[in-house]
UniProtKB/TrEMBL annotation:
UniProt keyword annotation of Plastid present: no
Source organism, top-level taxon: Bacteria
Name of protein: Glycosyl transferase family 36
Pfam families noted in UniProt: GH94_b-supersand, Glyco_hydro_94
Lineage of producing organism: Bacteria, Pseudomonadati, Pseudomonadota, Gammaproteobacteria, Lysobacterales
InterPro entries, A to Z: 6-hairpin_glycosidase_sf (IPR008928), 6hp_glycosidase-like_sf (IPR012341), Gal_mutarotase_sf_dom (IPR011013), GH65_N (IPR037018), GH94_catalytic (IPR033432), GH94_Enzymes (IPR052047), GH94N_2_NdvB (IPR037824), GH94N_NdvB (IPR037820)
Biological source species: Rhodanobacter panaciterrae
Keywords: Glycosyltransferase, Transferase
Domain Glycosyl hydrolase 94 supersandwich as annotated: residue spans: 10-276, 502-773
Glycosyl hydrolase 94 catalytic domain mapped to chain residues: 787-1209
Length: 1291
């Protein structure tokens, strides 16, 4: 294929290089992927507009600091001399940067799993040039589907190292299961004819390479003079990057070789060294690759014209191309997603080519298509082909007979080599399928071929909008607010608490930024968004994982925003954003304040003072963004305001963009977006609106950003041209709206941007009209009332202000807003209800929102199967979920029900009647089953649901302990009992607690035989648990083969904290053992120097035993020996129960995120938000003290209860209250207010606890309104609407 200049380069052109096991795909911009067998080596996402994913060679002039790349991407700067050529077995990219010319050749070895990139750099100038060349590739080394769905999780398991002996980087993926493929990669950079650098320069930490808040185009590692850090190990976000420095004299050239080898062992990857030592290895590789590619084409009989045709089709299979799909009016008909195709046996998992043929004249083209399918499959590109016979009558019968014969032969070929990826062929008759299947095929097909003359693709006419007059501000500017930064509590140089702890203020400037995204999760029960201090985040409706309106970010390094508000000065052309990302104005100070149900951004840039306030109303599915602009200058300002969203409208990890349809609603003038091609939510309508003030709009992301464009510099905002109005199907979709305003001196204006979602068009129109007329301040007042009602129910004032802020203002907000309503955060987007997860969460709401706790208790009870087990998690609203052999889930129903009844006095909840689920059992040999269960005809009381959960849990292993199944509370220990014999001591303690709470209820209801059976089991279990005593602590359990887990004899995981804390919580028979077990926790698991409470120690890494996927985590990260905060909170309860208030409160302080972020140094180490609890804190170098996943963690609810109930002793018992604190001896006391909501009134109890004797525990006097009460009795609460004084004295 001849070379093409930049004027003629087809931007959609792609090439595929492969030896049958290793493949490299490259587009004309140089972006693409590397793949080994079925594993992705590098990260790539389908993005026909930005197209910024791939492996790149970056150059930097060491004199000028200028940077460019050996291919068009990643910098996206076209030059007139750009050339791209795809030949047999080779891709070539030619470029010129001033007098430096480069040619990049790429090939895959024919006889080894090696990829080679050869760069020839020539200096055509008259001066010597010093240049550094840097490679960059983001590593996956695993299944691309898992990486797409949850990249931050996938990245954790990749481990890197520098092999100095061979001068190469190595990387491997830590395996989560023994059946996973082992994969190793090696990466080396040579300068031909030159020895390796004495001091190598390399990087494998993406965060260090890019720098926080940067994309690759702004990478800090490419800034003038920046050097690579030589970081390797468990870096959490891995890349391969090598750098060499070269000096080029006038009229000289140099060749660099970038090698990558894949293998199933470290030794296999190191075999790359043989290539490095061979002077002609590169030439042999390129020659061999060309020979193999030509031989394969000859074997299949592919000529040059066919090769070009196949490449054209392939481009649309990789990146959606509207010119090769069905017409826009046809695409809108498809409904229901892949399940629509299943009736024809088509999975929808692979790209589809659809051929419509009406007579036999098209058969040669059919044969060409089948040839292309075989050709692509040989290069590891799996494509399904559907032949749809549209002929009728005898002609149709005859044609179908031919197609069936062709299909039979092709199917045999497709099955002939099981080492290649699966691909399928389907021959269907048009008159034998229904409209849904036909429309589905036309919608989903990436390439639609027919036997008619191809019609030219005509662009849809742009929508015409009657342009209103420019909006002129007339409101006088409000007075500038005085800065109160110096009044922040626990200020750390970046942020601090304000509004008496109820909000957190963050300041960003050129020198200071958050080391990780510091976000707010803002939600009502059905809708919400999260937003970072810099402006990143996303929005969802109904289900935060299955129905995101905009893409979930999950990239804490770049945090690139997908929702942006732009401002442009129409006189000067200066463009900036309302938030620090994507366009940060140099020298500007940005202030972000996260409050309860709202976030506010303030900055002053380019002479405009700006306030952006974002919130979600308490009930409706809409995000409101009020942009307030103030011109305090003496000249009028003409500005355009442009809102932009990138639509998602499909489950996280999928590619919904090709199926999103945008329209302008004629009734409201808003921009609507739909994705009917999905099984759920396909009828819903998403929308954006500028409160009706939009002057122009666009639904075309490529049109708005520009080819290879980004949100940092949208092409549509380079001048004052209105947005194009381009809307419809088959676009790379977005929602962009623009309005124009004039701000006279000393005036201000409010612009409201709305992003929402509704069940249908009429509901969307109603929402839009409602909030166009709404007063945002009234919406904010409703939000404040909602959250104040929750948070003000109990307020505390202790000697520990950090504890007060967490208990009074943030933990319940985290529990309710994030865990129960949003079910998502930056690091994990669940969308699901976890059976045990939200049940534990609502225990923290039994005082402030008992209605929500009750509601969820009933919701969870309804997810139980007749057999007693439950769904481990399920997706609302449909209820599809996973049935597992995890052993503890069902018993949380019992435990939480008893807590709820005890706290609220609502015994009637046990008589609520709910059906069971019905569904397939887990297949023999499998560990779980995902399916949509049905509702059983059998309906029983909540009591019976609980009882059946206990009945199903009375298992015994060889040591008398309950069987762990495929995990107890610690899901990561899924292999301890995978053969059905492993045991769990923690589960034993937990069962004792559940039985102790529930058996009396059974006895009161006359279910005595059952209760006695549970009690007998508990008696035997207590004895077995004491036999699990290991000398200084309790063992965690036993593997299938009887090997102890959590024993002093264990190489790894010698002691596990939760088996010790629950021995106290469950009233172990031997109290001395329980006390000693907690002493061992303090001695061996609590790292006082680093303020970390480890889950267990040492971490799993190299031991013979395989506990499960927990061993795949890097040592010290998450559950694998790090602080897993959820489990650590239980030790607070244990210490309090033992009467040790110093240790109980001390551990609360240790777990309190405020205390991990109270200085600039602490922030640099901890990194994540100071105001919400992190699920985990890492415990092993180099990440000691680093916070992990925040917000979406069950530790928030337990830490709240630990502080309020265990330490401060607040125990609500229906219409009674008991105060039994266990506090540090040096506390003089504390105060607490409780708003008791009776049936008629809200009565206020002001509680004072005094500690004159400097004790931890022991109530000696109780006075209510001046009257002494018996110290052993709970205090009766009255419903009189008055304020009461309760005084407790310890001694």
């Amino acid at each position: 294929m001849p070379s093409a200049s930049s004027r003629t380069i087809n931007a959609r052109q792609h090439g595929l290089l492969s030896n049958g096991s290793y493949s490299v795909m490259l587009g004309s911009s140089g972006s693409g992927y590397s793949q080994w067998h079925d594993l992705a080596i590098t990260r790539w996402r389908e993005d026909p507009t930005g197209n910024g994913w791939g492996s790149y060679l970056l150059l930097r002039d060491e004199d000028s600091g200028a940077v460019w790349s050996a291919s068009l991407q990643p910098y996206g700067d076209r030059t007139p001399d750009d050339t791209v050529m795809f030949n047999a077995g080779r891709a070539s990219f030619g470029r010129r940067h001033h007098s430096l010319h480069s040619v990049l050749d790429v090939a895959v070895a024919s006889d080894a799993d090696i990829e080679l990139r050869r760069l020839t750099l020539s200096n055509h100038g008259d001066r010597t040039r010093t240049v550094t060349l840097t490679s960059y590739a983001e590593l996956v080394l695993g299944p691309i589907g898992a990486d797409n769905a949850h990249p931050a999780f996938s990245k954790m398991f990749v481990q890197t190292e520098w092999d100095a002996a061979h001068g190469m980087l190595l990387a491997t993926r830590r395996r989560r299961a023994s059946g996973e493929a082992q994969v190793w990669a090696a990466h080396a950079l040579q300068v031909v004819g030159q020895p390796a650098d004495v001091v190598p320069e390399y990087e494998t930490d993406r965060a260090r390479f890019l720098g926080r808040g940067n994309a690759l185009r702004q990478a800090q590692a490419m800034q003038p003079g920046a050097v690579l850090s030589n970081t390797t190990g468990c870096v959490l976000d891995p890349v391969f990057s090598l750098r060499r420095r070269i000096t080029l004299g006038p009229n000289s050239s140099v060749t660099l070789l970038l090698w990558t080898q894949l293998a199933d062992s470290r030794e296999g990857a190191l075999a790359l060294s043989a290539q490095l030592d061979s002077p002609d290895a590169a030439e042999r590789l390129f020659a061999g690759a060309a020979d193999r590619a030509e031989a394969e084409q000859q074997r299949l009989g592919i000529d040059a014209a066919q090769l070009a045709c196949f490449a054209h089709w392939m481009s649309a299979l990789l990146n959606s191309d509207p010119t090769q799909r069905a017409a826009a009016e046809v695409l809108v008909r498809g409904r229901g997603g892949p399940p629509t195709l299943w009736s024809a046996g088509i999975s929808g998992d692979r790209p589809i080519v659809l051929f419509l043929l009406g007579d036999s004249t098209a058969l040669p083209r059919v044969q060409e298509l089948l040839l292309a399918q075989n050709f692509w499959r040989g290069q590891r590109l799996a494509v399904d082909v559907v032949l749809l016979n549209t002929a009728d009558g005898a002609d149709g019968d005859a044609l179908h007979s031919v197609l069936v014969a062709l299909a039979s032969t092709q199917k045999a070929q497709l099955k002939s080599d099981d080492q290649l990826p699966k691909a399928e062929l389907f021959a269907l008759r048009d008159n034998a399928i229904n409209d849904d299947l036909r429309n589905g095929l036309l919608t989903v097909a990436r390439v639609v071929l027919d036997d008619a003359e191809a019609a030219p693709v005509v662009a849809e006419p742009a929508n015409t909008i009657v342009t209103p007059a420019v909006i002129r501000a007339s409101t006088p500017a409000s007075a500038a607010a005085a800065s109160i930064t110096d009044q922040l509590e626990f200020a750390n140089g970046i942020g601090g608490f304000t509004e008496a702890g109820r909000a957190y203020e963050i300041t960003l400037d050129d020198e200071h930024g958050t080391p990780a995204p510091w976000v707010n999760v803002i939600a009502n029960p059905a809708f919400g968004f999260l937003v970072s201090a810099e402006g990143g985040g996303y929005t969802w409706s109904l289900n935060s994982q299955q129905n995101p309106l905009t893409p979930w970010p999950n990239d804490p390094v770049s945090d690139s925003p997908h929702e942006v508000l732009y401002l442009r000065d129409e006189d000067t052309g200066v463009l900036w954003s309302a938030t620090a990302l994507p366009i940060r104005v140099a020298g500007a100070a940005y202030k972000t304040t996260h409050g309860k149900g709202w976030t506010r951004f303030d900055n002053e840039a380019n002479g405009i003072a700006l306030e952006l306030l974002q919130c979600v109303p308490t009930t409706d599915s809409i995000k409101l963004s009020r942009l307030r602009l103030c011109n305090r200058s003496t000249r009028a300002r003409r500005l355009s305001i442009t809102s932009y969203v990138e639509w998602a409208l499909g489950a996280n990890g999928t590619t919904p963009a090709p199926y999103v349809i945008t329209t302008r609603d004629e009734t409201t003038g808003a921009l609507f977006a739909r994705n009917p091609w999905r099984p759920d939510f396909g009828d819903r309508v998403a929308f954006v609106d500028l409160a009706g003030a939009q002057h122009s709009m666009s639904g075309d992301r490529r049109d708005f950003l520009g080819p290879l464009g980004s949100v940092t510099q949208p092409a549509a905002l380079r001048d004052n041209t209105p947005l194009s109005g381009r809307l419809g199907a088959a676009l790379d979709p977005c929602g962009a709206l623009q309005t124009h305003i004039e701000l006279p001196p000393n005036t201000q204006i409010d612009i409201v941007f709305m992003l929402g979602d509704a069940a249908n068009e009429a509901a969307a129109q109603a929402l839009i009209e409602k909030y166009r007329a709404a007063n945002i301040d009234h919406v904010l007042a409703d939000i404040a009332t909602q959250w104040n009602d929750v948070l003000d129910t109990v307020q505390v004032r202790t000697p520990d202000r950090a504890m007060d802020i967490l208990l009074n203002d943030w933990l319940q907000y985290q529990v309710l807003g994030c865990r129960l309503w949003a079910r998502t955060a930056y690091y994990q987007a669940s969308g699901a209800y976890g059976f045990r997860d939200q049940l534990q969460d609502v225990m923290a709401l039994c005082v402030s929102r008992p209605d929500l706790a009750r509601e969820h208790l009933l919701r969870a009870a309804g997810r139980q199967f007749v057999e007693g087990d439950v769904q481990h998690w399920w997706l609302p609203p449909g209820g599809q979920g996973i049935r597992t052999r995890i052993s503890d889930d069902r018993n949380w129903l019992v435990y939480v029900a008893m807590h709820y009844v005890g706290a609220t006095g609502d015994v009637a909840v046990l008589d609520e009647v709910l059906p069971f689920l019905a569904g397939q059992p887990i297949p023999e040999g499998a560990t779980d089953a995902f399916f949509q269960p049905s509702v059983s005809d059998q309906r029983v009381s909540v009591y019976e649901h609980c009882a059946r959960a206990l009945d199903a849990s009375l298992t015994r292993g060889a040591h008398g302990l309950p069987l762990i199944g495929t995990g107890d509370w610690n899901d990561g220990m899924n292999a301890v009992g995978e053969l059905g014999r492993g045991e769990s001591s923690w589960l034993g303690w937990f069962l004792l607690s559940a039985i102790a709470a529930f058996a009396p209820v059974a006895e009161r209801r006359g279910d005595t035989e059952r209760a006695q059976r549970w009690r007998n089991y508990a008696d035997d279990l207590r004895a077995a648990l004491e036999r699990a005593w290991d000398g200084q602590w309790y063992r965690r359990g036993y593997y299938d083969d009887g090997t102890p887990l959590g024993s002093h004899e264990s190489d790894e995981c010698r002691i596990d904290t939760i088996a010790q804390s629950w021995s106290v919580m469950a009233d172990a028979s031997d109290q001395q053992h329980a006390a000693q077990a907690m002493a061992s926790v303090d001695q061996l698991l609590v790292d006082h120097a680093n303020q970390i409470a480890r889950l267990f120690t040492p971490p799993f890494d190299h031991s013979q035993q395989n506990p499960g996927y927990i061993k795949g985590y890097p040592p010290g990260v998450r559950e694998n020996g790090g602080q897993y905060t959820h489990g650590a909170t239980w030790s607070i309860f244990a210490w309090a129960k033992l009467g040790d208030g110093d240790r109980a409160a001390g551990l609360f302080d240790m777990l309190n995120p405020i205390n991990h972020s109270d200085s600039a140094d602490a922030v640099a180490r901890y990194k994540v938000e100071p105001y919400v609890v992190s699920a985990d804190v890492y415990s092993v170098a180099p990440h000691v003290g680093r916070g992990g996943w925040t917000w979406y963690t069950g530790s928030a609810a337990w830490l709240y209860r630990a502080g309020l109930e265990a330490v401060l002793g607040f125990q609500l018992q229906g219409d009674k209250l008991r105060i039994d604190p266990c506090i540090p001896k040096d506390w003089p006391g504390f105060q607490l207010t409780y708003q008791h909501r009776g049936e008629q009134h809200v009565s206020r109890y002001e509680i004072t606890v005094e500690n004159p004797g400097k004790v931890c525990r022991g109530v000696t006097r109780v006075e209510l309104d001046g009257q002494a009460l018996a110290i052993d009795d709970a205090i009766a609460l009255v419903d009189d609407g008055k304020t009461h004084q309760l005084r407790i004295t310890l001694g």
